[in-house]
Design brief:
elongated, Rossmann fold, 8-stranded mixed beta sheet, alpha/beta, single chain
Length: 265
């Protein structure tokens, strides 16, 4: 039977991760809305976390298991070539550049030859911002790159990452998310998400950029206010590829992925 692995950090703990200085401990998301008869194949859903604890698993349904496992400092609790389909999503705000290297190698390891890997991430860049908003976002992105050794725009490089790993048939797609009331309900929801991000990251990121939490929040309020009539938006990127039948570890070429070609280690 086919099997799949879905790996992520829980969005519910995003604010906890940041306000606790990126302790990187994930919690189990609720799966109560999944009905057993909707799952026709053997499906295993895993969730990444980076706190060094041993793997934890729980069986939610007859053909659905949930795992907490360490993908950065240890191997996932699965044999080589185990899954037909592996997905990783929404980890940009948690992974350093070196974490990305560890994680993608583990995902490839547990994917069967001929199986597929899909990556889904938000590009942490907002288009059509006002002048002050652009300056603030650029300052924040550059600070995170320099001081956290993270790449906020990794979403733009997902195809490059799969190519660097030697994957075949690499494809990609992006979907734009409106920011603000011009995008109706979706735009308002995304604006609310940005506001929550600004509030939850204030204790940590204000220190990174060298301002007070109050000043940090004001910069975000200015960005949001300027964006009202500018039809601002962000992009979500997806990329997927096939693991070649004759895949070899020496196929990896990090130089094909630009974030790995900088001085960020």
């Amino acid at each position: 039977m086919d099997s799949s692995l879905d790996t992520t950090h829980s969005s519910e703990i995003h604010s906890q991760l940041l306000s606790s200085h990126i302790e990187d401990t994930a919690t189990v998301s609720s799966m109560s809305d999944i009905e057993e008869d909707h799952l026709e194949t053997t499906t295993r859903i895993g969730q990444l976390f980076i706190n060094g604890s041993p793997p934890i698993s729980r069986k939610l349904l007859q053909n659905l298991e949930f795992y907490e496992a360490n993908v950065v400092n240890a191997k996932l609790p699965f044999e080589d070539n185990h899954f037909d389909f592996v997905q990783q999503r929404l980890v940009t705000s948690s992974f350093t550049i070196s974490d990305w290297k560890c994680a993608i190698q583990e995902l490839v390891r547990v994917t069967k030859p001929g199986g597929y890997i899909q990556l889904l991430e938000i590009d942490h860049y907002t288009f059509n911002l006002g002048p002050l908003g652009k300056l603030w976002e650029a300052e924040l992105i550059n600070t995170i790159r320099e001081k956290r050794k993270m790449e906020p725009r990794m979403a733009c490089h997902l195809p490059d990452l799969l190519k660097a790993m030697g994957m075949a048939d690499v494809s990609s797609k992006l979907v734009s998310i409106p920011f603000g009331s011009w995008g109706l309900d979706l735009g308002v929801l995304w604006k609310n998400n940005i506001e929550s991000f600004a509030e939850s990251t204030a204790p940590l990121f204000s220190k990174l950029v060298g301002c007070t939490p109050a000043e940090y929040r004001q910069k975000w309020r200015t960005l949001i206010e300027e964006a009202k009539d500018r039809k601002a938006f962000s992009n979500i990127h997806a990329a997927w590829a096939r693991k070649p039948a004759d895949y070899k570890q020496d196929a990896i070429d990090w130089s094909l992925c630009p974030p790995f070609c900088t001085d960020i280690k």
